[in-house]
Write a structure and sequence with these properties.
With 277 residues, the chain is an alpha/beta fold. It contains 10 helices and 8 strands. Strands 7-6-5-4-3-2-1-8 form an 8-stranded mixed beta sheet. Strand 1, helix 1 and strand 2 form a beta-alpha-beta unit. Helix 1 packs across helix 2 and helix 5 crosses helix 6. The protein is globular, with a radius of gyration of 18 Å. The protein starts with a strand and ends in an 11-residue tail after the last helix. 47% of the residues are buried. The structure holds adenosine monophosphate, zinc ion (ZN) and fe (iii) ion (2 copies). Zinc ion (ZN) binds next to loops.
Length: 277
């Protein structure tokens, strides 16, 4: 009865629409998936409708991009209430992302790399813009060999077209998710490179930790399982599915449905997915 609790759609930088992701999840026989797009919940309602009346449980979520001391930290939020303050803050994040991408395009032009903002926008639907869309536009224009190549040459931190983005501090993101009735969970701690952040986030109210992730080997899984037990955190996991070649397939990493029940028990929006307007 597996649940994949980390899934992206075309509402952020995933390749597939929420409807298509739900179709694939059903075909795989998954019992639950969480839609966790970067800084947006724009894909949740479509996914919920696609899953309605089926065997698939749809968990509403978000993955907030945060930064602490130049480290990228991602905070997952499950079952947030979709209230005005929550949606307004996400809108602000989406606007900040657009401004950042515009500045990246300007930097690329200064480097003699001729792409336009519209070329980047053409790589996404209605969702939030991100560096992966710039990378895809560069590949489409023949200006980079691959998404990885585009990141390495232009977009990654320290590369010539990198632009920092004002982001949530992770402890602030944890507080924000709690305020909105959701359950804050630390995404892929193995990618942070500094486990000392965990206890600080626990002090801020962190409720769970993503123990199972494609980038966690067995040693990392054991380490974070012990951390979860030590702090009494919910153990979650997921594929971080984006579609496309260099990411894991949907359902590659799953947890039992007990994790979904644990998240449900902790959230303040007891109506769960049906609270979505
Ligand atoms: P952004 O939110 O715009 O800063 O973009 C972050 C996203 O870019 C991450 O979630 C990854 O999916 C992707 N990404 C970051 N670094 C790389 C890289 N070196 N190669 C490919 N994709 C990357
Ligand atoms: Zn992504
Ligand atoms: Fe992430
Ligand atoms: Fe993710």
């Amino acid at each position: 009865m597996p649940a994949d609790l980390h899934v992206h759609t075309s509402a952020s930088d995933g390749s597939f629409s929420p409807t298509e992701v739900v179709r694939q999840a059903l075909a795989l026989g998954l019992q639950a998936i969480a839609i966790t797009d970067h800084d947006t919940v724009a894909g949740v309602e479509e996914a919920r409708q696609a899953a309605a009346g089926s065997s698939l449980e749809l968990v509403p979520g978000v993955e907030l991009s945060c930064e602490d001391k130049e480290r990228d930290i991602h905070i997952l939020g499950y079952y947030p209430r979709f209230e005005a303050a929550f949606l307004a803050r996400l809108d602000e994040l989406a606007c900040a992302r657009r401004e950042r991408i515009a500045r990246i395009v300007t930097k690329l032009k200064a480097l003699g790399i001729d792409i336009d903002f519209a070329d980047v926008e053409a790589q996404t639907g209605t969702g939030t813009l991100g560096r992966p869309h710039v990378a895809a536009a560069l590949v489409a224009a023949g200006l980079a060999g691959s998404v990885q190549d585009a990141f390495a040459r232009f977009l990654t931190r320290g590369a010539p077209a990198y632009v920092p983005q004002p982001k949530f501090h992770p402890a602030e993101a944890v507080g924000f998710i709690l305020q909105c009735g959701g359950v804050p969970v630390l995404a892929h701690p193995g990618l942070i490179g500094d486990d000392t952040v965990i206890s600080k986030l626990v002090a801020a109210g962190l409720a769970g930790i993503e123990v199972y992730h494609p980038d966690h080997d067995r040693a990392a899984q054991s380490r974070y399982l012990a951390v979860a037990r030590g702090h009494g955190l919910v153990v979650t996991g997921g594929s971080d599915f984006h579609g496309g070649g260099h990411h894991a397939p949907l359902g590659e990493v799953t947890v039992s449905n007990d994790a979904v029940q644990a998240l449900r028990l902790l959230c303040k929006s007891k109506k769960g997915p049906s609270n979505i307007k």
